[in-house]
Amino acid sequence: MFSKGKKDKFSDLLLNIISNLQQTTKFCVEQDISNHHELQIFLENVKEFESAGDEFIQRITKELNQTFITPIDREDILQLALHIDDVLDGIEHIAALFEMYSVTSLTDQMKKFLSITHQCAAEISEAVTLLSLKKLQSIPAHSLKLKEHEANSDNLLRTAVKNLFATEKDPIKIIQYKDIYESLEGIVDNCRKVAITLDSIVMKNA
After folding, report:
1. Residues 87 and 184 sit within 8 Å (Cβ to Cβ)
2. Which of 25, 84, 117, 148 has CB 3.0 to 4.6 Å from 121, enough for a Cys bridge?
3. pTM score > 0.90 for this model?
4. In angstroms, rounded to a whole number, what is the distance separating the alpha carbons of residues 93 and 75?
5. Which strand (E) or helix (H) includes residue 169?
6. 157, 87 in Cβ contact below 8 A?
7. How far apart are CA 161 and CA 72, in angstroms?
8. Number of C-beta neighbours around residue 134 at 10 A
9. Residue 7 — very low, low, confident or very high, per pLDDT cuts 50/70/90?
10. Which of 133, 159, 164 is CA-nearest to residue 71?
């Protein structure tokens, strides 16, 4: 178990991973894209965050391979890190879709999805911080919140697609925006997988 009052390399690495994720989602919700140049800069910045996340995954994998005794099951540490990285990969995929489809004006639904992702990142951060402090009993509340966000994103997807078909006449744009909406919802699905992994860790170590 992660130790109270004592620095643990796996705890530190997980905290670095979630800090990078939070910085990414904060960057996304704060950006005001209005032209192709800003869209390109947006993608380049998100790619940098994603590359930093990949480096953290490489480091934590290396540490797991070199450490005989881990604070919790090594499989759980790796799975938690990988699911958080999946969220980051999803954000990079969205940034690439924005650039590929030349989306220089985000719809209200796109902004709402990004806001939900940012809220999810905050819940993941709180939960992993509690894990590092060995406060497992407080983690389920954050897991529950992540699942609520995922349910809300399901509803948002249905609303967004329904509105898209009702208002958009360009069939190409319908295909593009539907792809974006489904990919945005997929990011929140990955946040739910983080919640499930956290629940499993709590159950095993409580």
Report:
1. no
2. 25
3. yes
4. 26
5. none
6. no
7. 42
8. 16
9. low
10. 133
Tell me how far apart the terminal alpha carbons of the chain are, to the nearest angstrom: 10
Distance CA 188, CA 151 (A): 9
**Structure tokens given for 96:** 């690439």
* Rounded distance between C-alpha atoms, residue 124 and residue 146, angstroms: 8
User: Would you give the distance in Å from CA 118 to the centre of its chain?
Assistant: 8
Spatial distance between the Cα atoms of 89 and 47, rounded to a whole number of angstroms: 9
Q: How far is CA 163 from the centre of its chain?
A: 26
- Using DSSP's 3-state secondary structure scheme, residue 102 falls into coil
Q: Read off the amino acid at residue 193.
A: K
- Write the single-letter amino acid at 105: S
Q: Which residues contact 88 (CB under 8 A, 6 or more apart)?
A: 20, 21, 24, 49, 50, 53
Sign of CA dihedral 36, 41, 42, 47: positive
pLDDT digits (tens, 9 = 90+) for 14-62: 999 999 999 999 999 999 898 999 999 999 999 999 999 999 999 999 9
Angle subtended by helix axes 9-30 and 74-100, to nearest 10: 20
Going by C-alpha positions, the residue among 120, 166, 178 that lies closest to residue 145 is 120
Burial 162-197 (b: 16+ CB within 10 A, else e): eebeeeeeeeeeeebbbebbebbbbbbebbbbbbeb
Is pLDDT of 1 > 90?
no
